[in-house]
Amino acid sequence: MGQSVSRGNSQFGVRFRLTGVESMASVGDRIRETREHKGINQDRLAEKANISKGFLSDIENGKRNPSSDNLLRIANVLGASLDYLMKGETQEEHQTTRPVQIPPELSTAAQQLNLSFSQTIALLDAHRSVIARRSARKTKNFEVEDWIALHNAIRGVFGE
Amino acid sequence: MTERLNSNLTVRTLARDLGLAAGPDPVSAVVKFCQARIRKMLAEMDCTQDACGILSLTAAKLDTEFVDVHSEQEAQALQQKFVMAGETGLALMEKEFATGVLGITVLRLNKKPFERRYISVINCCGRNGERAYFTKWHELVHLLTLTDQSRLSFRRTHVAVDMKDPEESLVDVVAGHLAFHPPLIRPYAKRPLSFELIEEIRASVFPEASRTAAILGITKAWPHAVVVVKAALRSKRGMTTKQLRAADVSVNQAAVDEGVAAIRNFRVPEGSVIHDVFAGRANRAEGTEPMEGWVSSDGSRWSGGEFVVRAIRLGDCVQAIFTRN
């Protein structure tokens, strides 16, 4: 259920989507829902956002509206999207239709690790999800051993 | 550095990909593009426009969540938490932070509806905390200049040459402009610029900025002519004898507009107060000196007329700011 709203930003290929439940809910509802999902109580959110608990409660109950400053502070504490809190909108990425290009170093690593195609793509996705990096050191190519290290680091988290 | 960046193909391609008519100065075009985007964000939301507020609002509008990491243990725990949540791009975060990476921004692979699209993890361990303010702006500039071309192709970690990526250098230049938002500095501009005033501005307006970043950022944004020189022992190319030279030079736009020209590696003139400080005759010194006193062996000179030079000792270097008053 839901209603797609195409408000495409042609440069970034992002679409906005309103889901059925969220489009009826208020800012306060979404703040409460997000807060509860993150396991934060009202006291803690209010303290970290530098607002009173009473004011937060009124916001969540729809009795008062937060100012832009307060909404921004609440969003920062929750790590929440401003668009989601304000409008119930979530941004979706366009699916790319370009063919997948697996770098030769990853191909070699995948062979050495005996990875399936989907495991190789998952590794590629992990690496490609890094949009930016600030480093005091010079950049270098991602070599075979780097792909293996990434694979092992991911596996290590899951205790494999 | 800006001249080299202006003629760099990667920088010119980025400007083109952003739809900018860059001309001979793509760096300035990118700076203005980013400044315009931030002005639009500030106009859309009536939030407090101090340095922290602008940083925070820009991050929210660019849909990235800043996560500060203060220790190795915290890095380990967060890495575990993110990877368990499906954000495998951060699987090497702990190792990367241990080897000098200051910030990493990833696109969430497993985003919940209420979450921001990106996570920017900032290395605040030890002294890296002093650089966190600038690192955050660095990460935001990457997001401000993200294009379809950059998102869909391998770029940053597949640079084939072992040198600082020109796009990273460009991002640093742009971040320097954005981190020290000129309207926040302008109220102080009736007073003569000094190291004490820079520190006053840093402490009250940009408390999260490092002193080094503040000297460069505030002088760049200053509405009057300023030149910043870091003097250190350096040798001329091809020679071994070291002399006190301008190891780094920064000329702000107001100075450029007045025709001031200053180039790196010129010898510090004998009569300059910079020598007094370097030689230990004073911890700090001030004097009025002509730019034309800086002369190269081939006869070329700096230009710009008389400036008040204020110099202080900084480790084994001397930092000096040149102002008209």
* Largest sheet strand order of chain B: 5-4-8-7-6
What share of residues of chain B is helical? 40-55%
Give the count of helical stretches of chain A.
9
- The counted number of beta strands of chain B is 8
Question: How many helices of chain B?
Answer: 14
SSE run of chain B? HHHHEHHEEHHHHHHEEHHEEE
Low-confidence stretches of chain B: 151-162
User: What class do helices, strands and sheet pairing of chain B give?
Assistant: alpha+beta
Indicate the proportion of strand residues of chain A. 15-25%
* Major sheet details of chain A: 3 strands, antiparallel
- Biggest interface in this structure? A-B, 54 and 66 residues
Assembly classification = heterodimer
Radius of gyration of chain A: 21 Å
- What percentage of the residues of chain B does DSSP assign to strands (E)? 15-25%
Spatial extent as radius of gyration of chain B: 21 Å
C-alpha end-to-end distance of chain A: 38 Å
Helix fraction bin of chain A = 40-55%
Compute the number of strand runs of chain A.
4
How would you sum up the major sheet of chain B?
Answer: 5 strands, antiparallel
Question: How far do the termini of chain B sit from each other?
Answer: 27 Å
Tell me briefly what this model is.
The complex is a heterodimer of chains A (160) and B (325). With 160 residues, chain A is an alpha+beta fold.
